[in-house]
Request: fold
Amino acid sequence: MPKYRNPKKTWRYSDEFKVKAVLLSLIKGVQVKEVATALDIHPFMLSRWRKEYREGQIVTDKRKKFTGVVSKHEKELSKVKRLEAENRKLRQEIDLLKKWQRFLAEEHQQDIDSSRNLDKN
Reply:
């Protein structure tokens, strides 16, 4: 394996970005891993930011309100979850219809086979 001469690039995130990420992860029904994946950061980093936010180490301008951003994302997340549930239901219906179709085809084949046997006798 080749040796790397340059150190790894470490990303610096603004406190505003960190707070937005933390607020997104605090939405009811949202997992840290989902938010981290969406923001392309490691879940451990987001968990650390959440801890720092609770301890008051990450502070942004108090005059800015993030509620609009959070509620917008909350609506989108609820819509996505609803669509995923609908998608799951439709897939189950399709699977059931496929099974029913296979069952009917097998029944039809058995009827054909039994009628052939009757014709031979």
Residues 11-64 form a domain with the Arc Repressor Mutant, subunit A fold (CATH 1.10.10). The helical segments are 15-25, 32-39, 43-55, 67-120.
